[in-house]
């Protein structure tokens, strides 16, 4: 895997199980761990998390965390959700977690669910303190879970089943109906809370299960491979039931999403192309493409030129660039995953493919 300019997005995340996960609960077989370049990481505290659990997650001790964050924590060492802690993590580091909702099935027990998600039982109980100990089928539980690896799709011949890619247990049943500009969304799934991104407006961030799963996978791979630590910001996806969503023309069927391009470190706003981190943008686009489930990514031609340069500088091959970027072709050239569409100067618009088993989803 070639790593230049800090970018080395690849689908191969073949690290072995680290001791830190084993401490956090029974390890799932072959869980993929990530190894970012930076050893100092920022951990965002999730609800009900304790210092002991964070320590176990990274394979460090509680007192080390207290020492590294002395100023923030004070003598009482209180932590709260959303707080950021600096941790000097030994490699490899576990991937960021996502919050999912689990629907209890017949025959489930607390410990069965905890071990399914590879989280400590105590933690599972704490996240769902209001749920009675004897729950019923159909009860919804909150779980902050690690992404679990699944065999990669057989599109990459010869590699099927050998390379692990993380996937996320996203609420199922969210279906894209019809076309992106003339369609709707059935049982729209809200974008889960995640350490990986910020959702601008939750009312406008519903999607099809398939699209959300692919997006989370790409984000996790991108962050892991690039070491990008700033927040990814999600603009509009679809309304809960999809359909007309002004001022957008598409975004109707839960498989279109607007993502702000990664900024250069220290830049607050994207005022010009110069505020965009093009190397990171290329990394993000590669990670999205690697899911194999992206139909298009829209970006203005003037911006594609900068993306093209960043790709070249990071060592991308001509063939790869031709496959992924329309530029230097003209705006109407029918080539490249990244295509021109007006107004996409500071955000990209990603359109995911229809789920393979969804017959009611249509493309143009
Ligand atoms: Zn859009």
């Amino acid at each position: 895997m070639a790593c230049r300019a800090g970018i080395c997005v690849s689908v191969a995340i073949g690290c072995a199980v680290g001791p830190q996960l084993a401490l956090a609960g029974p390890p799932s077989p072959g869980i993929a761990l990530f190894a970012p370049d930076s050893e100092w990481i920022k951990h965002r505290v999730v609800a009900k998390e304790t210092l002991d659990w964070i320590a176990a997650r990274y394979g460090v001790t509680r007192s080390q965390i207290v020492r590294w964050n002395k100023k923030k924590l004070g003598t009482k060492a209180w932590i709260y959700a959303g707080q950021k802690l600096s941790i000097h993590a030994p490699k490899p580091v576990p991937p960021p977690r996502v919050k999912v909702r689990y629907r209890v099935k017949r025959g489930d027990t607390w410990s069965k669910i905890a071990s399914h998600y590879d989280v400590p039982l105590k933690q599972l109980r704490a996240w769902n303190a209001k749920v009675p100990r004897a729950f019923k089928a159909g009860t919804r539980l909150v779980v902050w879970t690690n992404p679990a690896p699944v065999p990669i799709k057989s599109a990459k011949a010869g590699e099927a089943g050998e390379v692990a890619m993380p996937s996320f247990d996203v609420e199922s049943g969210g279906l894209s109906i019809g076309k992106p500009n003339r369609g709707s969304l059935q049982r729209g799934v809200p974008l889960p809370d995640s350490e990986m991104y910020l959702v601008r407006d939750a009312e406008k961030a519903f999607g099809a299960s398939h699209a959300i799963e692919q997006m989370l996978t790409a984000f996790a791979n991108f962050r892991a491979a690039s070491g990008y630590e700033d927040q990814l910001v999600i603009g509009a996806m679809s309304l809960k039931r999809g359909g007309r969503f002004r001022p957008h023309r598409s975004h109707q069927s839960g498989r279109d999403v607007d993502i702000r391009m990664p900024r250069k470190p220290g830049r607050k706003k994207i005022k010009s192309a110069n505020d965009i981190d093009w190397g990171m943008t290329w990394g993000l686009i590669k990670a999205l493409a690697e899911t194999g489930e992206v139909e298009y990514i829209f970006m203005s031609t003037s911006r594609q030129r900068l993306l093209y340069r960043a790709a070249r500088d990071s060592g991308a091959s001509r063939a790869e660039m031709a496959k992924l970027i329309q530029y230097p072709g003209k705006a109407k050239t029918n080539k490249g995953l990244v295509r021109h569409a007006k107004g996409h100067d500071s955000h990209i618009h990603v359109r995911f493919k229809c789920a393979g088993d969804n017959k009611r989803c249509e493309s143009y």
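Residues 1-37, 148-165 have pLDDT under 50 and may be disordered. The longest helix spans residues 209-226.
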